[in-house]
Amino acid sequence: MAIILKNSLKLNVFHNKLSPFLRRRQSETQTSSLLSLTTSSCGLIESTIKDKLQTKLKFGNTLNKIEITSSAVLEANDCTKGRKSVGVLGGGAWGTAIADLIGRNVAKHKHLFHEEVLFYVRDESLRLIIEKTRQNIRYLSAIKLPLNVRPVSSLSDAVSKSDVLIFVIPHQYLQDLCYAINDSISTRNPIGISLSKGLHIDSAGNLELNSQIIHRMLGIPVGVLSGANIAIEVAQRQYSEATLVNPLTNDKNCEELFRCLFECNLFRVSFCNDGPTVEMCGALKNIVAIGCGLVDGLGYGMNTKAAALSCGVREMIRFVEVFHPKYELSTFFQNCGIGDIIASSFGGRNRKVSEALIKSSKSIEMLEKQLLRGQKLQGPQTAHVVYQLLQNKQLLNEFPFFSAIHRICNRTMDPKDLIQAIKSSP
Amino acid sequence: MAIILKNSLKLNVFHNKLSPFLRRRQSETQTSSLLSLTTSSCGLIESTIKDKLQTKLKFGNTLNKIEITSSAVLEANDCTKGRKSVGVLGGGAWGTAIADLIGRNVAKHKHLFHEEVLFYVRDESLRLIIEKTRQNIRYLSAIKLPLNVRPVSSLSDAVSKSDVLIFVIPHQYLQDLCYAINDSISTRNPIGISLSKGLHIDSAGNLELNSQIIHRMLGIPVGVLSGANIAIEVAQRQYSEATLVNPLTNDKNCEELFRCLFECNLFRVSFCNDGPTVEMCGALKNIVAIGCGLVDGLGYGMNTKAAALSCGVREMIRFVEVFHPKYELSTFFQNCGIGDIIASSFGGRNRKVSEALIKSSKSIEMLEKQLLRGQKLQGPQTAHVVYQLLQNKQLLNEFPFFSAIHRICNRTMDPKDLIQAIKSSP
């Protein structure tokens, strides 16, 4: 595929703003007055450059042109060209369950994928055990991983050999991971899918999503998978669903590739183009789950929990309205919305720890260590980030439920006052 | 207040189509060429006649005029004029809990309400026990009713003395009740609020809601109260919320009247003008609850339940789209929507009986008798009505989840096939 940028007066600016990955690509092929990028497949550079040009950089009209030959367009649309290697980054419960699912799926779709799935597990002792027993005895001992899932301890190996990168680490480690793998990114135009849940504040004080961090730091297109997916239940092959955001919007070949990667008889994916809402739902639902756990811990019944949950959902919607005004309300009715909210509010780890918070004087960090055996809570950190973002915009008054959850988590508010917060929510 | 209908060439047609209540009013004041209705308060006749003229009857332009003096308009808007007597029709668990709530509220708002609440209990032996012990030992023994709630056995007494009628009987008995009280309706322009949950098919094969039946048969304006309100929890004063549809849309005095009637520190009401959606949510959520009970009974976990629930909610929305195209999607995020769906799917009687259906070969009617001690299930009947309505419109294929619930309830489908129905739902 050839992408030609003509009339590049501001080429240096463009060059410096490109991600390290694209800079490498560019240097290989740059000419004096014509930048021509040649690569083997996927149109990934095309979409990345378009994105950079159209959203990140303010070029004059002269540079903002991309010429692509018609054969290149055809090729660019065929993201399934060539068999893909898949790497799963993260050896927690959900990482293990998804490695298991993907391991089985790539074996069924050998025309699309290399059969070996690289499974990065940070802790070498755990990796050795998984390699030997096929079981993640620490986080998901109930299943044996298929033989084609290979646990690896070298992050750069896992990354450099993968065309599809599944990010499934706690969101608080995401930036460090991206920094660490920046130089290992495959030269074969990888695509990322974020399964991490959480929100960030960028250096300018604005909201940044996991997929945006990966895209910013690695320069690769990133999709999202999110839904009511309690890891052990997916691993036990109980029927589950998820919402999938195609990294290359409207690219049907890419959609089909990812459907084959994730979907099976007992795991159904539905596609959604409203990526930011899908991702925000995945993060914000953990705040709602904390609220529901608090209601449980306070000894209230289903009416109060339903009031807390529907109040929480309405604050979720208002939050998305503020930070992503082009959202679709219907996204909240996908599995990533109402489905995930319910599963987390009745069954997840955030609910569990916050219920314990009522009955204990320990800090939430201590309870996390005690109850989750090394797994990380996303809810309290997300509540903190949301609190800061709303504070920056002087909107805390309009989000009494979200605000209360943060203040209860950091022990500056009596949990009993949660009911008052629910009542005062618009 | 005076309402004057001029130029009534088709007066006889109009006269015959009016409800018995309005016919009485009309006969009292009719003159040869001018129909003048005089009444004391509330503008109820105004709204009822307007409704009849504008939506039910197809008159010529000449008759379709209502002249109201400006003082009458002022008076018509003041629906709080005069202290109101409240009657609660229905002695089940929810009827008892709401009689308790209303009993306490009218005592707090003596300027708006007569202090005595008439509580119609059909079964005389139960009524006597309630009168003596203040406890509904059959359906809600956990609380003692306040002394100002007077259980009565005469339906006509309860109805004729009430300005506000709370309909809280199983929906399958609603038409019989309306027929029975048609001649007892107060001459003081009562207002109704429906708390019943369920759907009906009218004589033309179309969907008819509880509030529409009451309005059609009694000629009174009818609002709706619906939400995550498990009776025992409301009675135990656990914090609960509900959505309230004002019988006189946009009449702020009427809104305030009903807020005072229902709201207290631990029961919050929010108003919503999208009445048909509120009412359909209250009925359809019982089908979703059956689906969730089946998932529980089949031994699946939270992921599958979340998939069933979100699939059910999407079919609810599509159903409302078909039968009430002017719906507001946001109504589903009120307590009457997502809140009630959750409470019913995790805690209600429909969930309980359908879970038992999996583990038993008994019919759903037998399980209802065995498990609910005389209380009625709304879910299976609602699923049946929905099935018929969709069949009439040849839309069953688009509602595989709803269709499956009906067929599982009448034992013509294996419950295990529910998962396939969820998977095939659009």
TrEMBL record, chains A, B:
Q: Which GO terms describe its cellular component?
A: cytosol
Q: Name one GO biological process term.
A: carbohydrate metabolic process
Note the SUPFAM superfamilies from the entry.
Answer: 6-phosphogluconate dehydrogenase C-terminal domain-like, NAD(P)-binding Rossmann-fold domains
Molecular function terms from GO: glycerol-3-phosphate dehydrogenase (NAD+) activity; NAD binding; protein homodimerization activity
Task: Describe the location of the Glycerol-3-phosphate dehydrogenase NAD-dependent C-terminal domain by residue ranges.
Answer: 276-420
Q: What is its EC number?
A: 1.1.1.8
Query: What UniProt keywords are attached to this protein's entry?
Result: NAD, Oxidoreductase
Which pathway, per its entry?
Phospholipid metabolism; alpha-glycerophosphate cycle; Lipid metabolism
Q: What class of enzyme is it?
A: oxidoreductase
Glycerol-3-phosphate dehydrogenase NAD-dependent N-terminal domain segment(s): 86-244
Catalysed reactions listed for this entry? sn-glycerol 3-phosphate + NAD(+) = dihydroxyacetone phosphate + NADH + H(+)
Q: Which InterPro entries match?
A: 6-PGluconate_DH-like_C_sf, 6PGD_dom2, G3P_DH_NAD-dep, G3P_DH_NAD-dep_C, G3P_DH_NAD-dep_euk, G3P_DH_NAD-dep_N, NAD(P)-bd_dom_sf
Q: Member of which family?
A: Belongs to the NAD-dependent glycerol-3-phosphate dehydrogenase family.
NCBIfam families of this UniProt entry? glycerol3P_DH
What name does the UniProt record give this protein? Glycerol-3-phosphate dehydrogenase [NAD(+)]
Organism expressing this protein natively: Medioppia subpectinata
